[in-house]
């Protein structure tokens, strides 16, 4: 992306301007960023591996159906258990990864939001800004894959029921299971949520602003708003698209990051992203930017704005915004 956003200015009619450059493609950490960058990258570097594994999750549907249809056939019960157990082990690895994301997010937010001027921080901490965007893109990709794979919930429900029956016959069955009952209870709360990774990140962001009293909440919300605006500008302005190494991929990336930033902002800011009082994010243009370059996940992104934000249906939300997302 090179100098794509160098000296790029965005005026939204209320005196809010951004004149800086974010290199989402090739930013490298400065010495001041290196320590935080390395800690975040130790987790973020495995995100594609997690997405690939989740995308390849095929489920144990046939074996489970056979076992349920033939409850007295021990061979089929064994086959179903042996089939679903390694799949549940994979689900546990995704759940464990969400905990790593939850743990490293405050480190990243601290690095980006700890300075007095969020815009200067984003402009100078290019590598951390890039990591933040990549993490948010991962979150929405993960949740898209999870929502479109009902086998995950079906497999996990069957596993928990079967484990409970096994424990009734043998109290020690829990010890040899790939996921014991206590772990399964925690995981069930994660997978029961339509967008589990977004929930983890949203709660971690909310916790960050409540616990870090030395960092004004405005630093975090401004950082999210600026990131959302920068991504929208990249989507809106065709003059810059021919500079992308991979135009389609970069545009879709920006759409995901923009939407994720809006959602987090809406969860953290007291009046949210949709309020008439909000002059940090132009929501009308943001929604239109999601629709501007349609891709297979366009409707999912719009649904994320409709159903995972907190303030869309508030009385203070303009009717024009509600109509755009109707």
Description:
This protein has a two-stranded antiparallel sheet with strand order 1-2. It has 326 residues and is mostly helical. The longest helix has 40 residues, at 74-113. The relative contact order is 0.12. The protein has helices at residues 34-44, 47-55, 61-69, 74-113, 118-124, 126-147, 151-169, 173-176, 181-192, 196-211, 217-236, 247-268, 283-292, 298-307, 319-324; strands at 8-9, 19-20. Helix 2 (47-55) packs parallel to helix 6 (126-147) and helix 4 (74-113) packs across helix 7 (151-169). The protein starts with 7 loop residues before the first strand and ends with a helix. It has 15 helices and two strands. The chain has one domain.
Low-confidence stretches: 1-17
The biggest beta sheet, please? 2 strands, antiparallel
Gross geometry: elongated
Q: What is the number of independent domains?
A: 1
Computed CA radius of gyration, to the nearest angstrom: 22 Å
